[in-house]
Specification:
single chain; alpha+beta; Peroxidase, domain 1; 8 helices; elongated
Length: 185
């Protein structure tokens, strides 16, 4: 099985690594991690900001001005502000979301964390999520970083994806297996 790595994957990986190295050099990893998460949230919730970032027809001066006003408003670090302005100058701002995802993955990997996805048919309270995360961390002897999503289509139960391991206790999956058995019979 071959994997195709294209220019954008290489570019986003390199910029993500560069941001990580800058943050580490300036002892600002935790601060810049929070700032990156804030920008990611802003990208998801504000369509005007997302359009400003992803639209290649926007002039770099406009993008730089918008980035500077946002970083001033949210009191972002000088390092992160300069990095975002560099992306504007190099016309790479449209890669912002992927660069930040790469950056956050590098941080997670450096901490020895393993990403896991949890899907649940019912909304799970934060304390329950913490208990699930703690139990998974103990079972896999690594710190588990849990990404939780509520999925009512599961009807009941949970689905946990951890690397190549998938634990599916959902009623939806049980009904699917039952349907297959009935067809085969």
């Amino acid at each position: 099985m071959t994997s195709k790595i294209n220019f954008s994957d290489i570019t986003t990986g390199r910029y993500g690594l560069a941001l990580y190295e800058l943050a580490q050099e300036n002892s600002e990893i935790d601060k810049i991690e929070m700032e990156a998460k804030n920008i990611m949230e802003l990208l998801q919730k504000n369509s005007d900001f997302k359009n400003m970032v992803t639209n290649p027809t926007n002039k770099k001066e406009e993008q730089t001005g918008a980035i500077k006003s946002i970083t001033e408003k949210f009191k972002f670090s000088v390092t992160f502000t300069k990095f975002l302005c560099l992306l504007c100058f190099k016309r790479r701002l449209f890669f912002l979301e992927r660069i930040l995802i790469s950056f956050l993955k590098i941080i997670s990997k450096s901490r020895g964390e393993i990403d896991a996805e949890l899907l649940s048919s019912k909304k799970i309270e934060p304390n329950e999520l913490e208990n699930i995360q703690k139990e998974l961390s103990e079972n896999f002897t690594s710190k588990i970083k849990l990404n939780y999503k509520h999925d009512p289509s599961l009807i009941g139960g949970l689905v946990i994806k951890l690397g190549s391991i998938m634990i599916d206790t959902s009623i939806k999956n049980k009904l699917k297996r039952l349907k297959i058995k009935m067809i085969e019979a």
